[in-house]
Amino acid sequence: MTIADRLTELGIELPQAAAPVAAYVPTVLANGLLHVSGQLPFRDGQVVTGRLGEEVDIAGGQAAARLCGLMLLAQVDAAVGLDRVERVVKLGVFVNSAGSFTQQPEVANGASELMQDVFGEKGRHARAAVGVPTLPRGAAVEVDAVFQVRS
Predict the structure, then answer these.
(1) How confident is the model over 62-119, as pLDDT tens digits?
(2) How far is CA 87 from CA 37, 115, 116, 117, 145, in A?
(3) 54-58: long-range contacts, CB 8 A cutoff, minimum separation 24
(4) Partners of residue 30 on adjacent β-strands
(5) Contact at 8 Å (CB) between 124 and 79?
(6) Are 64 and 141 in contact, with CB atoms under 8 Å apart?
(7) pLDDT digits over 116-140, tens only?
(8) Ordered domains of the chain (ranges, CATH)
């Protein structure tokens, strides 16, 4: 089964890969590792904003993390094609958090579970889930990633 078939089976349609908004590139392929720049959560063309522990609850944060994950997949597909992914190596999840909010790992599961749903066992990965006081464009979550890809 191709990854496109798996996405169809899961009822997932990938968004258009977002263009960079500053002086960076969306992906860099080096030594079989595809590094994907941080992706923001887009819904209906708008960034999902807010701070976890204030305006956004855990379910909303998980949904935002999943949207970031979908954008990561769109970037991988645009760069090398999803069927070249051998393994999801690592996700870095940044959560726009109120000072007392400590459930970043639960929020990050929105992206992690997506990778496992799409790639199965090779979607299991290392991860960092970090609370930050602000993110670009006021985003609720930002996620970057490293994928191992075959040549």
Answers:
(1) 999 999 999 999 999 999 999 999 999 999 999 999 999 999 999 999 999 999 999 9
(2) 17, 10, 10, 13, 11
(3) 54/98, 56/96, 56/140, 58/103, 58/106, 58/107
(4) 33
(5) no
(6) yes
(7) 999 999 999 999 999 999 999 999 9
(8) 3-149 (3.30.1330.40)
